[in-house]
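Usage

Read records sequentially. Each one opens with the input sequence:
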Amino acid sequence: FYIFYSMFGFQRTGDQFWAAGDQMARGFIIGATAGRTTLTGEGLQHADGHSPLLAGTNTAVVQYDPAYGYEIRHIVRDGLQRMYGENDHRDPNVMYYLTVYNEPIVHPAEPDDVDVDGILRGIHKVAGVEGDGPRAQLLASGVAVPWALEARQILADDWGVRAAVWSVTSWNELRRDGLDAERAAFLDPDRPARTPYLTQKLQGAEGPFVATSDYDHLVPDQVRQWIPGDYRTLGADGFGLSDTRAVVRRHFLIDSHSLVVRTLQALAERGDVDPSVPGRAVAQYRLHDVNAGTTGNTGGDS
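and closes with the structure output:
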């Protein structure tokens, strides 16, 4: 058993974990700097926008991108149970990889009705739809969950759009579940196909689905085929750059106002808002101006 802290993520250390998986190692890997934009002044080796993708290729790695402390609590407990508990049917020879961030954010208390199963399987709702108006579903992971909650408020205040927010604790585990369901249906076509967990979870949710994270587009894109509706993604592709968190997030168009505009574009294409709304929003939030970005706290090494 081990706990390994990596300040570079899978992009610099992944080969070690291939060897560890081959040796049936167990333990926790803590990605001590995570995301393309949370550590922007330390050089590009810290601008990690793709470690979840690399981790997803290693079947011995169970990767999570939690946002809040209460999510981490349940994930760690589940990892200990799986690796060392009794009467657990799952393969115990795995490593739990948690991406954690160095940006200070407010961690809410655990809700009384917290969806523990959703946290462990990859997605749970942190804010529901309130009020009348066009509907949308915002998906985010890790440090981006507060951006989605801010976007939810902006959509309501400025445009009358009512959005729910989902914390995606593991894009990778949702993909694996979807692939498992497809494999079972492929090998036994005469039996009713199992509906993937992500599809079950989002079935009946109204409006377009729009996702953001501090990672490459490919991270949220990997679950596209199991989203039960129109799906748009934002992402931080390519190399990072050194500037403030707010500037870099505006540069990549992954921040709260970018999420608002992408949602309005999806709603306009559905006829749920006036076609002029997205253009007005781009101008109002100065989306072309990197210095107009406001998404990101100071503190830590920003």
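Summary fields computed downstream for this record:
- Residues 171-187 form the longest helix (17 residues).
- The beta strands are 2-6, 27-31, 61-64, 95-99, 124-127, 135-140, 162-167, 209-212, 231-233.
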